[in-house]
Amino acid sequence: MDRIVVITGASSGIGLAAAELFARQGDQLVLVGRNPAKLAEAAKRVHAAVRIYAPDPYKEPDVQRADFEDLDQVRELAAHLDRTYPRIDVLASNAGGMVAEHRITRDGFEATMQSNHLAPFLLAGLLHERIGRLVVTASRAHMRGKPGPHDFAGKNTSWQAYSKAKAANVLFAAEAARRWPGITSVSFHPGVVRSDFGAGKLTRFFYRFAPFLTTPETAGELLVWLADNPVVNGAYYVGHQPRQPSRHAADPQRAHELWQASVEATGLGK
Q: Which pTM does this prediction carry?
């Protein structure tokens, strides 16, 4: 039976590039994003990739809208996946980004931390019994942030919030490997990727036009490689090799405390 691959943040950038590659392999895709128009365009691109490369019969992607700044929408997404699929061979936890200003979501959490960590944590937690591999898009920015429970709603600059959320990604992937023995779980730095990333005109200009940036296609290839090949469970990858993350992102005690706080924040298991 063909693999079932769920990709969050699939409507552009790394997620879309990876989706096209997974589709060419014949995988059944679930594309998750928050912008309906961009999701529709992403589905067209995946359709075009499959028609050229993949064997028949063609499998239309399952397109699901979910805004990770609303945990109820994450729960609805998890319920759909639970009803629809007997297993999830790969969950590419790729959704996230940076918000320009400190903002509290309707759930009571800082928006960057919720969309990058708490919402993906909740989705994986609700589905972990059927997930085979978890690939978490982190960032080298994790080196500049030490997340703690107070950061779920605390006020930080946009870069501080993002860095702490990316450190939370690394800690989460490592702790998932320890707590969920049925899952192979890794995080990775995709490179500094050309995209619409960032808060503020100067940052966005840099990520769109700087000449040395990693292409979304290259980053997407790495995500697919991590989903397809033997990996070190719980590791943080840069390229095809596991690397030691910053000390605070490799601390099992911090990972344990962050996990417990995330369970409490999201109500996972209640």
A: 0.91
- 119-132 CB burial, b ≥16 within 10 A, e <16: bbbbbbbbbbebbb
Alpha helices in the chain (DSSP H): 13-24, 36-53, 71-84, 111-113, 119-127, 158-179, 201-209, 216-228, 252-266
> Out of 1-5, 212-216, 224-228, 249-253, which region has the weakest mean confidence (pLDDT)?
212-216
Active site residue: 53, 85, 162, 237, which one? Answer: 162
What is the rounded distance in angstroms from the CA atom of residue 12 to the CA atom of residue 81? 21
**Residue with tokens 């429970």, as numbered in its chain:** 149
The answer to whether residue 162 is catalytic is: yes
Residue 57: asked if its preceding bond is cis (omega within 30°), the reply is yes
Q: pLDDT tens for residues 209-234?
A: 444 566 888 899 999 999 999 999 99
Phi, psi of 5 (to 5 degrees): -120, 120
> What is the identity of the amino acid at 214?
T
pLDDT in tens, 148-172: 877 799 888 888 999 999 999 999 9
Pairing of strands 236-238, 241-243: antiparallel
Output phi, psi for 64, to 5 deg.
Answer: -130, 125
The residue with greater pLDDT, 12 or 228, is 228
> Exposed, middle or buried, 17 (CB in 10 Å: 0-12/13-18/19+)?
buried
